TrEMBL record:
Family: Belongs to the CBP3 family.
Pfam families associated with the record: Ubiq_cyt_C_chap
Domain Ubiquinol-cytochrome c chaperone: 97-234
GO BP annotations, alphabetical order: mitochondrial respiratory chain complex III assembly
Full protein name: Ubiquinol-cytochrome c chaperone domain-containing protein
A cellular component term, taken from the record's GO annotations: mitochondrion
Length: 243
């Protein structure tokens, strides 16, 4: 592992968290109705959660910052949730059906949308959710670094600049998606069109499908309990006509 790169990745996750906190947002909060809202889920979890009955060994390990079992489990689950996206999603079918160019940017924008949906669900879990969110974003940048190395003869300086630009864009995109999911379909459609289609022509039917896709998958994610989320219960990223 490249430790300077790892530090940069972790810094990126902290930057995203700071941006949301500075805006007074809980980041990627899903407020779909009649589904239970994020703030309601956090409150109900606190009220009904039984007292922990950890064994002596677990308690001792949890006192060590580098051996906190819950944190380690959350980070591992975050990486597996990310892998479930990139391994199970049919990118080629998405590109063809919705007339997106088969480029690295299209791959990134589609992946980014799904990462945001996972973050939206994770942030319903308070502090642990923030850790899951940051770890999912970290997994994305690790994957981006791996994939960019496979692009062949590309100017390294130009490539770094492009990845840095994607990083800044991701922060703005997450905020736009947050606002879209908490608003009506027109606002969400605008956020999707600006990101996926880069404000170029897009069939209204394609954009409408993406809005329905996001709303329906957010509803699926919202039905998962915390334990199901940490157990990486498979999420079926199915197209609208297959759901």
């Amino acid at each position: 592992m490249n430790f300077p790169r790892l530090r940069a990745i972790r810094h990126q996750a902290r930057v995203i968290a700071n941006i949301y906190n500075s805006r007074g947002l809980k980041s990627c909060k899903n407020t779909l109705k009649p589904q239970l809202g994020a703030s309601q889920r956090v409150a109900s979890t606190v009220e009904v959660k039984p007292e922990q009955t950890d064994g002596f060994l677990r308690k001792m390990l949890n006192k060590l910052p580098f051996m906190n079992i819950e944190r380690i489990r959350a980070q591992s689950s975050a990486y597996l949730l990310y892998e479930n996206v990139v391994d199970k999603l049919d990118y080629v079918e998405l590109f063809e059906r919705y007339e997106l160019p088969d480029t690295f940017f299209s791959w990134f924008a589609i992946t980014e949308l799904h990462v945001w949906m996972l973050c939206a669900r994770a942030m319903a879990e308070g502090d642990l959710g923030q850790l899951i969110r940051n770890s999912i974003v970290e997994a994305l940048w690790v994957d981006v670094a791996r994939r960019t190395k496979q692009l062949g003869d590309v100017n390294p300086a130009a490539l770094r600049a492009q990845v840095e630009e994607l990083s800044h864009q991701l922060q703005a995109t997450f905020i736009a998606y947050d606002e879209g999911i908490q608003s009506d379909d027109i606002v969400l459609a605008g956020a999707i069109w600006r990101r996926l289609y880069q404000m170029q022509y897009a069939s209204p039917h394609h954009v409408e499908d993406f809005v329905r896709y996001v709303r329906q998958h957010m509803a699926q994610l919202d039905r998962l309990t915390k334990e199901q989320l940490l157990a990486v219960r498979p999420v079926k990223w199915e197209l609208i006509d297959k759901m």
